[in-house]
Write a sequence for this structure.
């Protein structure tokens, strides 16, 4: 039984580490939004192109956080190591 408890504890630690992956997308999306606002301020006529590109980049960046969440949920609830 001690081995099973150790695996569960390591899985919980791994899930916590996997959730750190949410920090990167948050920083990246904030940086992209700031640069997008600067670009629209410089060239208001190109707003639609700038916003479209910014949203595409934000969606790609968000997938990293979602993958981290999926890994954490798998480790917590559908643990393949047990």
């Amino acid at each position: 039984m001690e081995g099973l408890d150790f695996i569960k504890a390591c899985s919980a630690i791994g899930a916590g580490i996997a959730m750190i992956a949410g920090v990167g997308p948050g920083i990246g999306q904030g940086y992209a939004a700031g640069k997008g606002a600067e670009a629209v301020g410089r060239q208001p006529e190109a707003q639609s192109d700038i916003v479209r590109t910014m949203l595409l980049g934000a969606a790609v960046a968000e997938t990293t956080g979602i993958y981290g969440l999926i890994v954490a949920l798998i480790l917590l609830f559908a643990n393949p190591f047990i």
Remarks:
- The CA atoms of residues 3 and 82 lie 10 Å apart.
